[in-house]
């Protein structure tokens, strides 16, 4: 799965579950979190790890 597909899936899932989240903000955060994990040895789990990190970061926002 390529990086754009990972981000697209995360944006779709999170904005469906949390309609109050701004789609552009979710995409920006997901891309930032994915960039941090790009060199991680667990490449098979990038989707799950990025989604978790994105949710956590969005929940911290006021």
Features:
single chain, 62 residues, mainly alpha, globular
How would you describe this structure to a colleague?
There is one protein chain. The chain has one domain (3-60). Helices cover 73% and strands 0% of the residues. It has 3 helices and no strands. The chain has helices at residues 3-17, 23-37, 46-60. The chain is globular and about 35 Å long.
What is the number of independent domains?
1
Look at the helices and sheets and give the structural class: mainly alpha
Form type: globular
Helix residue percentage: over 70%
User: How many strands appear in the DSSP assignment?
Assistant: 0
Order of helices and strands: HHH
User: Biggest sheet, in brief?
Assistant: none
Rg calc: 11 Å
Beta-strand fraction estimate: under 5%
| Euclidean distance between termini CA atoms | 32 Å
Give the overall average pLDDT. 93
Stretches where pLDDT is under 50 for at least 5 consecutive residues are: none
Q: Can you count the helices?
A: 3
């Amino acid at each position: 799965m390529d990086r754009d597909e990972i981000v697209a899936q995360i944006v779709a899932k999170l904005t469906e579950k949390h309609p109050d989240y701004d789609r552009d903000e979710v995409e920006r955060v997901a891309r930032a979190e994915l960039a941090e994990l790009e060199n991680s040895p667990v490449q098979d789990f990038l989707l799950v790890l990025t989604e978790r990190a994105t949710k956590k970061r969005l929940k911290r926002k006021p």
